[in-house]
UniProtKB/TrEMBL annotation:
This is 4-hydroxyphenylacetate 3-hydroxylase family protein. It comes from Megasphaera hexanoica. Pfam families: HpaB, HpaB_N. SUPFAM superfamilies: Acyl-CoA dehydrogenase C-terminal domain-like, Acyl-CoA dehydrogenase NM domain-like. Residues 281-476 form the HpaB/PvcC/4-BUDH C-terminal domain. Gene3D superfamilies: 4-hydroxybutyryl-coa dehydratase, domain 1, Butyryl-CoA Dehydrogenase, subunit A, domain 2, Butyryl-CoA Dehydrogenase, subunit A, domain 3. Keywords: FAD, Flavoprotein, Oxidoreductase. Coiled coil: none annotated. Residues 2-274 form the HpaB/PvcC/4-BUDH N-terminal domain.
């Protein structure tokens, strides 16, 4: 699909979306002021696939059909595919300055592909063949798929089956000869309201008593019983006002997340890819998380490029770009950004082949990379705040700039160096404000899992015993090989 075809296809859905207590009709979603930035951003992943200069990164050849497909629907067939994914993400972020949402479904498909293969090997089930059919459908339609892992989770000290409300994790409430019925909700769903399908996965490793919660399945975002409640963002009502005030008026901030409620939703068996196999829930979660953590040095690398560019531009506009401390701070931002990118490239270059034949990232490096994101983005953004000055927090509105009464004062007193308009200086300040503010920062912390989730993984994978042995040997302490 082209971006326009994608937008048109969104209007045809019967999706139920609520925002601020009111329903947004499906046909209005691509133009709704609160949603259109996220839709524009996702639409670019479609348009760029037709751009000859981006084609190599944006497209791939389907291993199922041999057809040319959008890379966001591809199963990685080589280390080169893994590296191209990261490069593609950085390239798109450099054009949008924000999330374009399609990586979540991409990672969910790659995780489900390999896990269903290994599940079938152990249990003689037919999940993998079913999943391949679903994948072919996604590749042929070029539909956007939301990756739905995170459950609301209620009391975090309790397992799914121990919760006082059983719906706090998505679970199977009924099975019949046609399929299953599921109930619960998925939280923080990136791009869900502008997707066509969702792929549901369990949120954590499960024990046998959590059998009903071991469910992986695909369903349309407008299946009967599905309701989406779109989330608020910092300063979102500015979307009803001038484009300067929005900072990134075309593409918005972060991915546009929602709570997706699944109220006794029927899923036919051909779309069920796990049902009760608790011992494979952990594999699915780990694979998805690692593929997803691989992304962050790519997408956040590109987003940080824009923050660096904006900080450097504001320093020019304010007349202190040549100061040594400013240059040094910009260099520090570059250093941190490339460190994030390096981890994503490294975990891809160290990728391995799975029994299914697909390629998978180096989990240790992917988790270390995402852990860096939970810290370095805050540091990059802190430096951007330092460089930009206090006016990113105190600037009047575009309406004041354009006011017949006070516009002349805003124009005069918010001016920087000669030759730069106040309006342009305000635009860059607002871009820095939105890209480094509340919603954007929290995404770097929690998207793809909070820091502890990564620490648990890399502490297990780092092989501390081997390091101890190596150190003892060098120190001359006798140790067994
Ligand atoms: C912008 C954004 C987009 C997202 N997009 C998606 C998406 O598209 N798909 C998707 O599936 N998910 C998505 N997520 C969800 C994301 O993966 C979760 O936010 C993340 O896993 C953290 O879960 P939580 O938000 O429920 O926080 P919590 O789990 O409540 O974590 C908060 C803190 O509590 C700690 N904690 C939690 N449980 C325990 C425990 N049992 N014991 C000790 N400490 C604990 C955590 O380590 C953390 O420090 C998105 C999140 C954000 C912010």
């Amino acid at each position: 699909m082209t971006g326009q075809e994608y937008k048109d296809s969104l209007r045809k859905r019967n999706i139920i979306v609520y925002f601020k207590g009111k329903q947004i009709p499906a046909k209005e979603i691509p133009n709704n002021p609160y949603l259109r930035g996220h839709v524009n951003s996702a639409a670019l992943t479609y348009d760029l696939a037709f751009d000859p200069t981006c084609e190599e990164l944006m497209t791939a050849t389907s291993h199922l059909t041999g057809k040319k497909i959008n890379r966001f629907t591809h199963i990685h067939q080589s280390v080169d595919d893994l590296i191209k994914k990261v490069k593609m993400l950085r390239m798109i972020s450099l054009k949008t300055g924000t999330c374009y949402q399609r990586c979540v479904g991409f990672d969910a498909m790659n995780a489900t592909y390999g896990t269903t293969f290994e599940m079938d090997q152990k249990y003689g089930t037919h999940y993998h063949e079913r999943f391949k059919k679903f994948l072919e459908y996604i590749q042929n339609t070029d539909f956007m798929l939301a990756g739905a892992m995170t459950d609301p989770k209620g009391d975090r000290s309790k397992r799914p089956s121990q919760q006082s409300d059983p719906d706090l994790f998505v679970h199977v409430v009924e099975k019949n000869d046609k399929g299953i019925i599921i109930r619960g909700a998925k939280a923080h769903m990136t791009g869900m309201v502008n997707s066509h399908e969702m792929l549901i996965m369990p949120t954590m490793s499960l024990k046998p008593e959590d059998k009903d919660y071991a469910v992986c399945c695909a369903l349309p975002v407008d299946a009967p019983g599905v309701i989406h409640i779109f989330g608020r963002q910092s300063n979102d009502d500015r979307k009803l006002e001038g484009d300067i005030d929005q900072g990134n008026a075309k593409y918005g901030v972060v991915g546009g997340e929602c709570l997706t409620v699944l109220n006794n939703v029927f899923v036919p068996w051909e779309r069920v890819f796990m049902c009760g196999e608790t011992d494979f829930a952990g594999m699915l979660v780990t694979r998805f998380a690692s593929y997803h953590r691989q992304n962050y040095g790519g997408c956040k690398g590109g987003v940080s490029d824009i923050v660096i560019g904006a900080a450097a531009a504001i320093a020019d506009m304010n007349g202190y770009a040549k100061a040594n401390h400013i240059k040094s701070k910009i260099n520090e931002m570059i250093h941190l950004t490339e460190t994030l990118y390096a981890c994503s490239i490294a975990c891809s270059a160290e990728g391995v082949q799975l029994p299914s034949g697909q390629y998978f990232v180096n989990m240790l490096l992917a988790n270390v990379g995402k852990h860096n994101v939970t810290r370095y983005i805050y540091e990059i953004d802190r430096l951007a705040h330092d460089i930009a000055g206090g006016f990113i927090a105190t600037l009047p509105s575009q309406a004041d700039l354009e006011s017949p009464e006070v516009g002349k004062y805003v124009e005069k007193y918010f001016k920087g160096v000669d030759g730069v308009s106040t309006a342009d200086r305000m635009r860059v300040a607002r871009l820095i404000e939105v890209m480094t503010g509340g919603t954007a920062l929290a995404e770097s912390m929690h998207g793809a899992g909070s820091p502890q989730a990564q620490e648990v993984m890399y502490s297990k994978l780092a092989n501390l015993e081997a390091k101890k042995k190596a150190a003892l040997k060098i120190a001359g302490v006798k140790v067994e090989d």
